[in-house]
Amino acid sequence: MNIAPLFIAVPLFTAFLTPVLSRVREGIADVLSNAATATLLALSLAALYGVHTKGVIIYTFGGWSPPFGINLVVDGLSALLLVTISLISVMITIFSTKYMDRFTDKPKYYTLLMLMVAGMCGVVLTGDMFNMYVFIEMAAVSSYALVAFGCESDELEAAFKYMVLGSLASAFILFGIIILYSFTGSLNMAQISSIIAEKGASPPVQLCFALFLMGFGLKAALVPFHAWLPDAHPSAPAPISAMLSGVLIKAIGVYALSRVVFNVFGMNMLFSEILMILGTLSMIVGVLLAIGQWDFKRLLAYHSVSQMGYVVLGLGIGTPLSILGGLFHLFNHASFKSLLFLNSGAVEYGSGTRDLHEMGGLKEKMPVTSATSLIASASIAGIPPFNGFWSKLIIIVAAVQAGHMAYALVAIVASILTLASFMKVQRYGFHGKLKEGLAAVKEAPAAMCLSMIALAAICTAAGLAFPIVLRYLIDPAVSVLLNGLGYSGLILGG
Q1: Vertex 189 angle, CA 187 and 192, to 5°
Q2: Separation between Cα atoms, residue 244 and residue 250, nearest integer Å
Q3: Which range, 134-143, 229-238, 290-299, is most confident?
Q4: Where are the chain's structural domains?
Q5: Are 312 and 279 in contact (CB under 8 A)?
Q6: pTM for the full predicted model
């Protein structure tokens, strides 16, 4: 029961301790941040075990039970996101120990990173709508600063655009919370859920859904709310690009939207159709914009839009199989997309370029980066036996079973175009003849290679042993969403 607040306390304590101790000893920021993320990974696995053995874990502040007090909730969906966030965070901090040496102030970088991690953990744990907003802002404001961390003109411009649109999204979310509070008289998600279950999906609830859809849709970079992402992701340092795409858009976007729609409002045909349309648009528009890109990181950024479309489509269909596929793809995308952004960082670290036209033959000089990028490319394109194949297959089969043949066809076409896009990356980036200016390129340092190898192993293992992953990691999260408005009974105890 007492494990829940540690997910927020550990990264917050690390964030405030890092700049203080870094004045005493150089390199302490690396040690503190890696220790913090490793601790979070251990805690998340313990939380997942607790959900399997004891059910929902509820922590109440000050002994005030919900709905009167603020509470943190660890259920199957929270545990899935906590494992995903902590796993990617560990890989990012290991990768950053060498990659961030090229920047001037690593302690500030780690401080912002830990604040972002604390914000994401708070979002997935809180049972209070206003606290969710506060934690979203904590994670978002930290990410604005991290996008601009290099302080170059294009980075500052991208961060400013991201901040403006992110603030607009936050305004939509806050306005929705205000209307929801005026309608229900409560900020506790479980109590709001029980009140809506009695009153039904009245016009104020539908208005709140529209506001949350715009707000969380902007945070998740769903089409047509995606304008900030193609600039923000390429401009950020590679580890932050991996965090933004791997977990941030999921925690403060997709997770928050799915929690509200399924467990607070209750899924209905209108909400389902809207989510399916947005998911399908994101899939096809994202991949069409990606396939023509020659900037490695910008290409990956557009694929984040496309792959989030698969997740939202799976959630929107709303059947047990489709939700299973959507949540499995959420986890899979975190692993292979984070790996691809780390690959792009390793390539830029070694060659000094992100332009695929200026690359070629890097397989000779960077064998680890090349091999891991091939695994990640196969995963995102849906090539068996890697993890991306199974989650895409489950979503497509679920769409067919539900009678949505058009959506299934679009998902297949988007996957084929994704394969074409990453064949281009492999052809122009890693294969062919080595360009003259790349003769002095060397493989990335060991710490960076370790993160890439570990993520490639996860992509492979999650594909080969996908029934185990589904049973122990994904199924509990599916049960939470399928329980719908029954969420309130679990929290309020009746």
Answers
A1: 75
A2: 9
A3: 134-143
A4: 6-492
A5: yes
A6: 0.94
